[in-house]
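Support case: FE3-S4 cluster complex. Customer-provided input:
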Amino acid sequence: MHLTREHEQTLNGAFGAGKQAALELLVAIGDAFDAENMIPIKRAHAASSGQEGDLYFVEILAKGGAQCKVVTTTNPIVDFDYFQKYINIADEPEEASVAWKTKNYYKQIGAVMSQSCIPYLAENIPEYEEHVAFSESSATPYVNSVIGAYTNRESIQTALAAGVIGETPNFGLHLKENRRGTALVKVETGLKDSFRYSLLGQYVGKKLGSGIPVFIGIPKRPTIDQYINLCAMTNVPGAIPMFHIPGVTIEAKTEADAFGGNVPRETLIVTDRELDETREELQTATGPVEAVILGCPHYNLDQMGELAGLLKGKKIKDGVTFWVNTSATTKLLAERTGYVAAIEESGARVVTDTCIDMFCWNNLRSKTGMTDSPKCAYYRRFGPVKIGTMQECVAASL
Ligand code: F3S
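Agent response - structure generated as follows:
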């Protein structure tokens, strides 16, 4: 890969051990993928997890004096102050200590502590054709497919390194010719609610595994939360960084545009049967629900409003805990709008800055849970689990 004199100096440690480690990682990735050069990026999103692998790298950067060069937002980890009120965080000393240190190192290197897994809606919004480095399951496909910015499917570490250097190796989805469709997905169902988009993503992600699907037959332009669900789930059981919906998403006016001369390697047909079977595969529980978690990915303001409407004036059943995860930005607006009051007066709790894949939920492992998120079900926060729409989750909790 072509490197400038400044790159060589950075690799020799002239600007500190932190920047050196960040560039070493990016150059290794670039060499592995035959990138010819590095390109500047405008922004990054590190899917910080607050777990060992995350701590390992951010600690090297922080102790080596690195600072983020471009806006670099962070994923949810855990809201310590909040959870200390409900559970004894000291019961999980090792995991809590790793998460605590990780958060502090991110602050030290100048990352934006947005702690949201949908930063592309509020805290860190790329522009069309902007080169960025975004990790996180829903973020990568959303940024590529819906916004039309260019990012590879980054890890926490490569996104963070790119944020520190302000550049990324030029390969993969940074090159137009690699953004063409590779598989055709014929949707032959009405996709009647946002939850069905999650099931569609789960089914397609699992079946294809990788590549760039082109969806035809999606009945109308998806809403923002439908896009988020589709993006998140294509990229959990699969590794799908981008898709096209001809006539809808920004880079494909027609099916021919979407494929750009590629012949589809595979064709999938998705009917209600595939989606119903996908739901059944994810469910392991029957009987009454003891805990509900919504907001994986974090709920946006529209979803908070919808949930507030469903819970207003109702009471969650005794013995059932009900949590909704969102970002601090969304919660602030939801408070001002009255949504948080309506939700919390029912007995449900709104929590910010927190990922469902964290130790603070370990106390739910013996409970029968319910969620509207296949991703949450996948991470097995509960014992047995049911999945369903937001409305079904609320109904089960009342
Ligand atoms: Fe967000 Fe964590 Fe779920 S990052 S999408 S809450 S697994």
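The first strand starts at residue 38 and ends at 40.

Case will auto-close in a few days if no follow-up is received.
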